[in-house]
What we know:
There is one protein chain. The protein is of the alpha+beta class. It has 3 domains: 2-124, no CATH class; 168-228, no CATH class; 242-307, no CATH class. It has 9 helices and 9 strands. Strands 1, 2, 3, 4 and 5 form a 5-stranded antiparallel sheet that branches. A 4-stranded antiparallel sheet has the order 6-7-8-9, covered by helices on one side. The relative contact order is 0.07.
Amino acid sequence: xxxxxxxxxxxxxxxxxxxxxxxxxxxxxxxxxxxxxxxxxxxxxxxxxxxxxxxxxxxxxxxxxxxxxxxxxxxxxxxxxxxxxxxxxxxxxxxxxxxxxxxxxxxxxxxxxxxxxxxxxxxxxxxxxxxxxxxxxxxxxxxxxxxxxxxxxxxxxxxxxxxxxxxxxxxxxxxxxxxxxxxxxxxxxxxxxxxxxxxxxxxxxxxxxxxxxxxxxxxxxxxxxxxxxxxxxxxxxxxxxxxxxxxxxxxxxxxxxxxxxxxxxxxxxxxxxxxxxxxxxxxxxxxxxxxxxxxxxxxxxxxxxxxx
Length: 308
């Protein structure tokens, strides 16, 4: 009897491998998807509001839901589909059909027990960007949230957590609302392309906090000049970097900037007061990535004119 059951099981799984893969995400009504997205959004907003009861919560952005279906559930759905098709395959199995159906039912029951016993369930995943504010500060968070099918929070992973200055906040509003900042004929297309690029960078990079502040700095620059001039932006960035650096910021005097070269490197010659109170002239090279974020800074003290 055990050999027969094993034989039937092999037939079922051989048949299973011939069928197209099935999951909960194959057929989904658009209305159902919209309702699910809305219910998930309501559940998350309630969760975060309760987490910060004394502060102002502003929902900024939700990514589309990703449905995570464990293999055990996919296998169960596959077995159910096989069972539904077996009565149509009498010519294939003949007198063995009833045994194959019973074996399939047994496998379904076994799979259901495994799923229940191990608390295996479908999980909804989404990403949420939001702000939390009080009278003293404004903070930005980005969470990965995992919910069950009843929209209960199962897990939370913080992807971004940073504070905004008063100067940065208006540009964060620009960013979230994708407000056009270019003036002229191509206002909307230029702004749309810019924001799309910014969102791509923010979602793909690991150092999200630094990237967000850098994006807001770029938006501020574009809003001021109605264009993006890489030489002007990088020179202003370097000036501010030096002013914030305790080694170089005492009696800092800018002398000369190079244009940014094909390797995205800009050189800056300047004077500053050292710890011994002497004035010193140096050159700093800033290498930027494609998004004008500095990736390497080198100090030079000799033969400084070679860079200009």
